């Protein structure tokens, strides 16, 4: 297995689970949101507020296309699934894992909607993007992990069991 790519909604735990999973498996860890910030020298929310969502999505695609790691756990931004080009790049020699979290749980977890750097229009709600993105997450996922009522360690254990079917 090459890479493990985590996709899912903001607040699903991709970064938190990704770090623990990488440590557990002895792999590198890449957070594409942090890569966007590194490349552009700006916060995600600053890019969205000042350049617009389309510009942010292009920046996200560009950052993902630059990821060329092998044997890494890659935590993506929640909007990466809008780019078929980025997803095709991530899917090469990788297992795509969708961290599925119910909308009510996400509402409780996300307290900083205005500053978190979520690619959504001013007139959109968390429910709107949840309904829009869920079919895309399911489309790209090799494995769907239900994160409901599980802490990060429990999610990592579930992922490890699910990965067994993909071999060493």
From TrEMBL:
Substrate binds at residues 33, 78, 133. Keywords: Amino-acid biosynthesis, Aromatic amino acid biosynthesis, ATP-binding, Cytoplasm, Kinase, Magnesium, Metal-binding, Nucleotide-binding, Transferase. The keyword Cytoplasm applies. GO terms for molecular function: ATP binding; magnesium ion binding; shikimate kinase activity. InterPro entries: P-loop_NTPase, Shikimate/glucono_kinase, Shikimate_kinase/TSH1. Mg(2+) binds at residue 15. Its cofactor is Mg(2+). This is Shikimate kinase. The lineage of its organism: Bacteria, Bacillati, Bacillota, Clostridia, Eubacteriales.
């Amino acid at each position: 297995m090459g890479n493990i790519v985590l996709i899912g909604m903001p607040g699903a735990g991709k970064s938190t689970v990704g770090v623990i999973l990488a440590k557990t498996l002895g792999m590198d860890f890449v957070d594409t949101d942090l890569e966007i910030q590194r490349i552009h020298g700006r916060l995600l929310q600053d890019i969205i507020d000042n350049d617009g969502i389309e510009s942010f999505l292009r920046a996200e695609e560009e950052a993902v296309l630059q990821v060329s790691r092998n044997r890494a756990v890659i935590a993506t931004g929640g909007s990466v699934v809008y780019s078929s080009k980025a997803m095709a790049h991530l899917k090469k020699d990788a297992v795509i894992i969708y961290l599925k979290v119910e909308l009510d749980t996400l509402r409780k977890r996300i307290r900083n909607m205005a500053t978190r750097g979520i690619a959504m229009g001013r007139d959109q709600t968390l429910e709107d993007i949840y309904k829009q993105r869920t079919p895309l997450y399911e489309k790209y996922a090799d494995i769907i992990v239900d994160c409901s009522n599980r802490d990060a360690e429990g999610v990592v254990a579930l992922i490890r069991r699910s990965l067994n079917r993909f071999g060493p």
